[in-house]
Amino acid sequence: MASSGSYPGVPVGATNCRGNSSDYSRLLLPHLVRDNEPVHSSKLRLLLSAQQIQSRVAELAAAIDADYPESAAGPRLHLVVALKGACFFAVDLVRAIRRDVSLDFLAVSSYGSATQSSGRIRITKELDSDIAGLDVLLVEDIVDTGLTVKQIEHMLRRQGPRSLRIAALLDKPGRRIEPVKLNYVGFEAPDEFLVGYGLDFDERYRNLPDVHVLESGSRETASLGQ
């Protein structure tokens, strides 16, 4: 069988396939890890397929369009995307929104241990544009304790937007410590470690088109929060 040069053992053309994305994930999973740290696809359990995600993103975009009707006299809708994980969700969301929008990116890191966030954040990338007077939509990949997103919300409000709402692809309400209002939620997620569609473990798995559970018995994940 001819194989792709980038992924030995994967049929030529599979990396450019337009078929079922779950089949694509199964083909590539064994190759999306470091050479010296083999991982088998059995470590991953499918939670949300690409089809489910895209269908829900379209629904969220329709709700956003309804809540922000385009008006020549009104302020533009400005999306603030929390890097890195939310960029995958944000790109699909922006393409599904019908009204005109602008886009900016924010990056933060949390103080605390490797397994527990303190909720105190350090800005590693500032916004490039002024959000004063704009309708701002903060886009997050996943919200669990609420500590970090609450700090980001406070920081953005101090910059004087006309309105501020939050969209999250995934919500883990069972882990909530700090109450936070999420205006648009894709899916309620179980209290398990999730990867794919922007979510990572040690910077791996982000590019999977589906969302998977990284089984708790896999290496260090049993003690990790998300």
Question: Can you walk through the features of this model?
Answer:
There is one protein chain. By secondary structure, this protein is an alpha/beta fold. It folds into two domains: about 20-50 and about 190-225, no CATH class; about 50-190, Rossmann fold (3-Layer(aba) Sandwich). The protein is about 20% helix and about 25% strand. It is built from four helices and nine strands, in the order αβαβαβββαββββ. The chain has helices spanning about 20-30, 50-65, 85-95, 145-155; strands at about 45-50, 75-85, 100-110, 115-125, 135-145, 165-170, 185-190, 195, 210-215. The chain has a six-stranded mixed β-sheet with strand order 4-3-2-5-6-7, sandwiched between helices. Strand 5 (about 135-145), helix 4 (about 145-155) and strand 6 (about 165-170) form a beta-alpha-beta unit. The longest helix is centred in the first third of the chain and has 18 residues, at about 50-65.
Strand segment tally = 9
Strand order of the largest sheet: 4-3-2-5-6-7
The Cα radius of gyration reads 19 Å
Counting structural domains, the number is: 2
User: Assembly type of the shown chains?
Assistant: single chain
Low-confidence stretches: 1-22, 24-28, 30-40, 219-224
Q: What name does the CATH topology of the largest domain carry?
A: Rossmann fold
Strand content: 25-35%
Q: Give the mean pLDDT.
A: 81
